[in-house]
């Protein structure tokens, strides 16, 4: 990869929507050696409104104008997934590294195309799987890496939510349940976080299979998915994701089982990590998460660009998650 030519990361955002209100974009003006220069939305009034409310110097309603702005040297793609590949390739052609929202794209093929464009341009590609940098998930990784639960045997994911789950932003026209936009409904939007963290924790998944369907008929995308998978290191995994369950059966829980104990944690509904071992019984670790949830990962992106650290969430790792989701739902 080419060395980053500047001492400050000056961001331009394509698609300054809901995720940019609190989760991500504001930290670009908080992190040292980072500055948010411009935002773009297809509707100029919305771009102008965002820029004024967040004190962003420039706004555009044309992606090419933002991409070619000489004051910008890094691009954050915060659009729905159907535009990720197209915009990433344009950003690389403009000579600018990319930080893209998750899921990385709609398909593995689009992910591979983005990686190829990144490699050809000699520019880095990062994916917004920010749980790789949050303190509760780093605690889980530290416990596993230290062998506190012994040799990991298996993983089980349960994410069951009622229709219109509280885990996603509500809109009148929810793109997350449109496969042609999102790739695969709430499973792609939410399970991608869970599967990506397990890739970070245990290494790549080498094979996966599953079943997917639409039981309630509320929208076009799958509303129920079950899957089985095996990691390259031999650890086994299972998961069930249902987005038309009852309130009474609502659950967000992952259990990592080892030969000396287990770790239980939620991915979305809280931040407590519960450790249970044969030796010491039950312990609960509590964490306060940052107001801007992507701040730790964006800090690593900035540090990576400036040669001060390494970001663990890349196009290569993000593409692996897309591939696993395709294997499970095919």
CATH architecture of the largest domain: 2-Layer Sandwich
Relative strand content: 15-25%
Helix/strand structural class:
alpha/beta
Backbone CA Rg: 20 Å
Strand order of the largest sheet: 8-9-10-7-11-12-13-14
Largest sheet: 8 strands, mixed
Pick out the low-confidence regions. none
Number of strands: 14
Integer average pLDDT = 97
Inertia-based shape: globular
CATH class of the largest domain: Alpha Beta
CATH topology description of the largest domain: Dihydrodipicolinate Reductase, domain 2
Number of domains: 2
Provide a count of the helices.
Answer: 9
CATH superfamily of the largest domain, called what? Dihydrodipicolinate Reductase, domain 2
Indicate the percent of residues in helices: 25-40%
* Amino-to-carboxy terminus distance: 34 Å
Helix and strand run: EEHEHEHEHEHEHHEEEEEEEHH
Secondary-structure blueprint of this entry?
Blueprint: E1 9-14, E2 34-40, H1 44-53, E3 58-60, H2 63-67, E4 74-77, H3 84-93, E5 98-100, H4 108-121, E6 125-127, H5 135-145, E7 152-160, H6 179-182, H7 185-202, E8 205-213, E9 224-231, E10 236-242, E11 251-258, E12 261-265, E13 273-277, E14 281-285, H8 295-305, H9 315-329
Parallel strand pairs: 1-2, 1-4, 2-3, 4-5, 5-6, 7-10
Antiparallel strand pairs: 7-11, 8-9, 9-10, 11-12, 12-13, 13-14
Helix pairs in contact: 3-4, 4-9, 7-9
